Amino acid sequence: MKGVLILCFHVMVLSFQAKAWQAVRNPFEFSKPPEKFHQVADCMHVTSEEGEFFFKRTAPIVATPQHGRLVDVMSMAPVMEVCGIYFVTDPDKLVEVTVKRMDINCDTGGLMSFVDGWELNGMYFPTEYDHPKSMDQRINEFCNDPKMWPFSPVRKAFRSSQNAALVQYRIPISGSFTVSVRYLHNPDPCNIMAEGVAPYYTLRNRGAFRNCSLTAVFPAVMSVVGVDVGGRKDGVNYDCDRPDAVDRLEIGGSSGLDSANMDKSSTICGKSMEPGPEQGIFCGTSTARLISSGRHANQALVSVRLAEENDITLATVLCDMRRKKK
After folding, report:
1. Rounded Cα gap, residues 97 and 183, in angstroms
2. CA–CA gap between residue 212 and residue 288 (Å, rounded)
3. Whole-number Å distance between alpha carbons of 87 and 46
4. For FRET with 21, which of 5, 65, 188, 202 sits at 20 to 30 Å CA-CA?
């Protein structure tokens, strides 16, 4: 009996050691888990996932009795449509895009670009007034120059300033690309693209001379949960659209991404930690903009939810959301 107990003990010890050694890997055997692979099929692809994104366009193939399969380049019209992959993640993260492979010929009109933010119909998020970089710094365009083969001066990695970024591409005849995307922590978020519905979003300037914005690309009902803007301590004012109120929070909407000239629902300053009234923004884009002079440490907590049909009684801004004909 004693021998059986000793044998069982040794078996248990060996089993424990085997499990423990399974967790210890040879550093030379370490390998990163494979990235999730995404085949891009739609011209406008919106995603919050990480991983590798692949797109390929092939030239039409025709068959002839004499020559078999041939590429029918002469009879086809180039596809000059510009498409894009729109990335959006959590408010406190950045988007990092790495170009792993690219076959986009400059000579055929092919072009690829990284946009620090989003672009839609010539309008940008964040606007040029709310972004720390100029437009020239935010947009990077590149393609393959056959004369420089096999060397390519293309910058391989790009990083956004906020939780939204865009990869645009134009491949008229044939070509392909693969980009790897991951999301990194942002210790100081300023401009936020609302990915979904959260209890509230925080906008703060941290005492700096800058504008911060919260944008939702859908009709929304917004309300200010708490506000401390402009250094005033005598309550909150919803009518601060005057020359002396430089520091303010603007709530409003626009038909496109350009919120600099949006229709305003309210302009808020002062201090309050009591929830304010709900404001229905029936526009293609709903925005809260915190405008700061740098003289005050401003912050605002804003709640956002998707506007429903019965919220029309809360409407404070109504935009013409019909797509204009070009």
Report:
1. 9
2. 8
3. 6
4. 5
Which residue from 203, 189, 197, 188 is spatially nearest to 217, judged by alpha carbons? 197
Query: Strand 139-142 vs strand 83-88: parallel, antiparallel, or unpaired?
Result: unpaired
Residue type for position 180: S
Q: What domains can you pick out in the chain, each with its CATH number?
A: 37-185 (2.60.120.290), 194-318 (2.60.120.290)
pLDDT tens-digit map of 273-291: 999 999 999 999 999 999 9
Number of residues that this document lists for the chain: 326
Task: Report pTM.
Answer: 0.82
Q: Which residue has the tokens 């996932």?
A: 49
Q: Are strands 123-125 and 220-229 parallel, antiparallel or unpaired?
A: unpaired
Q: Token digits for 161?
A: 């300033």
Q: Residue 55's beta-bridge partner residues?
A: 177
Which residue's structure tokens are 């004909």?
325
Please list, residue by residue across 185-195, b when 16 or more beta carbons sit within 10 angstroms of its beta carbon and e when fewer do: ebeebbbbbbe
Identify the bridge partners of residue 304 per DSSP, sorted by sequence position: 222
Are 304 and 214 in contact by the 8 Å Cβ rule? The answer is yes
Q: Which residues pair with 268 in a beta bridge?
A: 249
Exposed, middle or buried, 67 (CB in 10 Å: 0-12/13-18/19+)?
Answer: exposed
Contacts of 61 (CB under 8 A, 6+ apart): 69, 70, 71, 72
Higher pLDDT, 80 or 99: 99
